[in-house]
Specification:
Helix 1 runs antiparallel to helix 2 (52-74). The chain contains 29 helices and 21 strands. The protein is an alpha/beta fold and 715 residues long. The model is unreliable at 470-493 (pLDDT under 50). A 6-stranded mixed beta sheet has the order 3-4-2-1-5-6, with helices on one face. It has a 6-stranded parallel beta sheet with strand order 9-8-12-13-7-14. Helix content is 42%, strand content 16%. The chain has 4 domains: 3-173, no CATH class; 190-275 and 491-556, 3-Layer(aba) Sandwich (Rossmann fold), CATH 3.40.50.300; 310-392 and 452-487, no CATH class; 573-714, P-loop containing nucleotide triphosphate hydrolases (Rossmann fold). InterPro entries: DNA_helicase_UvrD/REP (IPR000212), P-loop_NTPase (IPR027417), UvrD-like_ATP-bd (IPR014016). This is Putative helicase protein. GO terms for molecular function: 3'-5' DNA helicase activity; ATP binding; DNA binding; hydrolase activity.
Amino acid sequence: MTDEVVAADVTAQEVAHEQEFVDTVYRRLSEATRNAEALAREGHGRARLGHEGGLVERDAMVFQAAKRIATLNAAHEGLVFGRLDLKDPTEQPRYIGRIGLRDEHRDTLLIDWRAPAAAVFYQATAAEPQGVVRRRVLRCSGKVVVGIEDDLLDAETGSDLPVVGEGALIAQLSRARDRSMHSIVATIQAQQDKAIRAPAKGVVEISGGPGTGKTVVALHRAAYLLYTDRARYERGGVLVVGPSGVFMRYIERVLPSLGETAVALRSLGEVVDGIRADRHDDPAVAAVKGSSRMAEVVRRACRQAVPGAPREFRYFYRDDTLVLDSRELSRIRRGLLGQGRRNRQVGRVASALVDALWRQVRGERAQERSKEEFTDTLLGDDRFLLFVRDWWPALDATEVLPWLRDPEFLGVVAEGVLTPAEIQTVARGWGDDLSVEDVALVDEVRYQIGDPPARTDDEEADPLAGLVDANMPELTTVTDREFSGPRTAGRTDDDGYAHVLVDEAQDLTPMQWRMVGRRGAAATWTVVGDPAQSSWPHPEESRQAKDDALFRIGPLRRPRHRFHLGTNYRNSAEIYRYAAAYAERVGLSADLPDAVRSTGADPVEVVVDVLEDGVREAVDELLGVVDGTVAVVVPAARRQEVTRWVGDWPEVADALAGGDAARLAVLGGLDTKGLEFDGIVVVEPGEIQQESPTGRATLYVVLTRATQRLVTVRS
């Protein structure tokens, strides 16, 4: 028999043996699911007890059962993926999986990958085997074992254990991609595992060049934290913030596949509740809107009189004509703002105006009446209440931001903060809808004015109801001098998250750091980024804003833990050499990790007379060469044009179909952040480089997205 036949027989025997164990685990999983379903039925039955205690028990039991069922269902695919054979002959092999399971005798059947007992699966190496002789990764399709990959870590033990396959990591890296990120739970490397299992307290910063697994490591860290302190992180919640909706859809399956669902995934355009934006401003506009100086512009705007509000109020009382002119109203406005955020003062406005009017009462007939009677008269007069409502309305943040669209208003509040050229840039840069950059400004407004007060059903029916807070004390008289300096508004009423994970952190503007920081004032943090890939043109300003958000917001003194990943698992060595050479040529100070595999396929540069024909040929060729996904990456100005071309090509119709399951996508350079594809066609790379001040970094990002093939096409 040949060596190949012998190896095939050994592999078949080993796969069959592992299949027996996997079958046992799935039988136990089915039993656990039936038990959870029975608990849910029992919980529903508690509602028939006829008292409140039964209802409470029902809710608790059904909730816990539902969580357990969701966890079991999520872990169904790829449930068992690892095995450790140990040097100690008395120890049985340890099997590692997405969740932990016990057998009917309560003995450990499957170890959760996050458990301390599983750590050696990731940390053992040939240099330091830590008592492990053989590490095995099981590749499964559903419940069926389709392959195994072994690493012999301790050859000196003299074990007769067979070793099968080329190694799990290389086998995994060579597979075709689809439109979703998948967990790497079976192939986490020792360097990555240290970041995943880092101390929970404080800030964990994960840096590294393209393809080093920063994103997926951070997501596995979130799953690890939920496992180690579930009560805290499920109660407070975990927020994952990424650069775009495309990116969030790409990563959305990772945590559920690890059995974790208590996580909110938000792109930067979705961080503020109730708002969704995916349009980016022109780079020049975005550079101004994202600057930390906009916080002062917004603060000033929120202290101005409401545009269009009445500027005067006249009231005849007995023998007196009482007048609140613009100067007096400005004084009252400053006094109210000195007491707290704008929306918090809605119930105090009427009282402040009544006080100001009462101080003007001079006539004998008027003074015969008490202030209480005067107050009752005003509060019973709809003219006064309408003035109160119109002069100091309860405001939503999305109503205030449009004030800045008025060039004259913007010029007043931005004077001395922005340059005249920057003011003009912003004034011309407003779109018909909110941009991603606008969302941080909306949050800043909300931070400054507070949320509108909740209205009761009676107040909803009567627009003049709720304008007076009978329990609110009178305002003290405050002079103009006391309000000459800037004031810091209090925090918004957001419920802070227990953990915040920020990916592509190098791209966050200072205003976006302020927005995200408010969501994690008392949180632990995971921050992921690579400065060389930054699309923000002022890195020092951004670093300062990041440090303010992480270390100066909230009551905690956070320790800092830094981890650097230095191995590129995404790109072939040929593709990354090409991208690294570009980075060095254009002067990017890039972190250049080592690529671990080679395909023999160098990147191809194509120069054509007719751009559409060249792109069509490149796309058609890549779709035939690679089994997975292909992206056509274009300058922002050409995206609609190229998308139209691709849609008109019948030969790629199948590759375009299927929505998120499609093999082919047309994307702008910034849209590729954090993504990866088997093949990439880069259209007019020079235009991508020139389309913004950080275009060199954007093109570097684009060149590092391909795992197998890279083609550039220019006319």
